[in-house]
Write a structure and sequence with these properties.
Strand content: 25-35%
Helix content: 25-40%
Largest sheet: 5 strands, mixed
Strand order of the largest sheet: 1-2-3-13-4
Number of helices: 6
Order of helices and strands: HHHEEEEEEEEEHEEEHEH
Structural class: alpha+beta
Oligomer: single chain
């Protein structure tokens, strides 16, 4: 009876150990406060199992790595190509999305309300609005400088959308109504008489090592900073933000990692795509309604 190779055994172990899988999911979510971070974390893990990055701006020829990926903004597409496949072979594709509902920082977001500095934000996606209340929030996302340099940034717990105390709103337990523009303004520091409000963009630039004068634009969102946690009589449940849809991204990633560790290659091309902007319609260059999947499949088809 043939024995399983160490590579295959390692691949199967990843998929059969529930505790290890759940711990890995918690780590992946913690590392992915935004779609940009999720794409970067996915790329880093693929690099660790032998995948190579493909530059979309360059021609893809016969020398393209059989295990590769391309990152476009907050989306990532990865593939494993067989050395040979039949004319009737098709692509095996799994899809997910990297973005989740959040409060998104507006340009020049510093505001003062009643002696407290708040962040001017807008709703991204379709969240349960009360899920933002009384939670420690961080800021995370992408900064782009005037010369095109891209930096990912994240803070620790720095803001909070405080809920009004019951004695200030006696109807709160009967009908909670949240105004998207006036109520959901995260508190983040105190105002100083006569001083200009602290600039959150400047603070993020300092964290990223960027001269604030060189910042061209940003895409920054809030995220709950609590780490995912197991609960229940036997720790059978997992509580976390951003499970929609990072749980699916992680599942596809783990499957692709396991396949890359196998001794044998697949008989058909295997593709994982994790798009951005599903929460707001997907009709962008990195969304599921955009050209990313079609473009990459067309380029890969020419190599088979």
């Amino acid at each position: 009876m043939p024995t399983e190779s160490p590579r295959s055994a390692a691949a199967h172990a990843v998929l059969s150990d529930d505790d290890a899988y759940t711990a890995g999911l918690a780590d992946f979510i913690t590392a992915s406060p935004t779609s940009y971070h999720a794409a970067a974390e996915t790329a880093a893990r693929l690099n660790a199992v032998g995948f190579s990055s493909a530059d979309e701006t360059q021609p893809w020829g016969p020398g393209l790595q059989r295990c590769g990926y391309a990152v476009r903004d907050g989306a990532i597409i990865a593939w494993i190509l067989p050395e040979r496949c039949t004319e009737r072979a098709g692509f095996r594709i799994v899809g997910a999305h990297t973005d989740s509902p959040a409060l998104k920082l507006k340009p020049r977001a510093a505001m003062v309300r009643d002696g407290i500095q708040v962040l001017d934000v807008e709703i991204y996606g379709g969240p349960l609005l009360n899920s933002f209340l009384d939670r420690d929030l961080g800021l995370a996302g992408r900064l782009v400088t005037r010369d095109g340099d891209v930096r990912l940034v994240r803070t620790g717990p720095i803001a909070r959308v405080a809920q009004v105390a019951p004695h200030l709103d006696r109807s709160v337990n009967d009908s909670l109504r949240l105004d998207k523009q006036a109520t959901l303004l995260p508190l983040w520091t105190l105002a100083t008489d006569g001083a200009r409000p602290d600039d959150p963009e400047r603070h993020l630039c300092e964290l990223a090592g960027i001269d604030p004068r060189e910042l061209a634009f940003h895409d920054i969102l809030t995220f709950p900073t609590e780490r995912p946690a197991r609960f229940g009589r036997h720790d059978e449940f997992l509580a976390s933000s951003r499970l929609d849809n990072l749980s699916s991204v992680h599942a596809a990633l783990v499957a692709l990692e396991a396949l890359a560790r196998e001794d044998s290659e697949p008989d058909e091309p295997v593709v994982m795509i994790a798009n951005d902007h599903e929460e707001v319609g997907s009709a962008t260059r990195s969304g599921a309604g955009g050209p990313l999947l079609e473009t990459v499949l067309g380029r890969l088809s020419g190599l088979l």
